[in-house]
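Q: Convert this sequence to structure tokens.
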Amino acid sequence: MKPGTWTKGYADLRPQKDAESRPMPLADMIAGSAVAAVLSNPRLPDNPIVDCNDAFIALTGYQRDEILGRNCRFLSGDKTEPWLSEALSAGVREKRPVMVEILNYKKDGTPFRNAVLVAPIFGEDGELEYFLGSQMEVEGPKEGTAHRATIAREKIDGLSPRQRAVLIAMAAGKLNKQIAYDLGLTERTIKMHRAAMFRALGVRTAADAVRMAIEAGY
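A:
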């Protein structure tokens, strides 16, 4: 398939791209991140992207109205590794985090190696609501993977036990209210731990924190 082309009949499945279709306030999870990120909705046909950040636009060369409503596979092309695509699909089917380095294509056809993270986000009722997709261009197959994992583990090891517990829960797709219930704390306390954890990790958004946790093996 030529990179950037539509799957036959898919355009008819695109949701309306108005303010009501965007998962606010979850959009704040990715908006301020310097790392390319999207949110997709598995409750809609083919798990379409419902929000993306400016970094994703800059990375891929696509504009927002060319992105929303499409499955993330639209970045695939002729030489995209099918076994890695299947690994991502398996993570989605099984509602679990997965990270791979896969060959993708930008809008102009330029190939790039993409360190892709896909992680579930669950609602207060425990039902799957969205997927976070985080993308980072890397130099080559497995280039820097071990180094990024080591740095991530070192930073996470420096967290307090409570901060680490909050991060691990976030990486499992839980939101503040769920984490508060699980840890027997107030939601306000969770937000305080979360803010301190962001500072300690040197990240700005929940998406960045989750990516670091998955890179570290949590």
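Confidence is low (pLDDT under 50) at residues 1-21.
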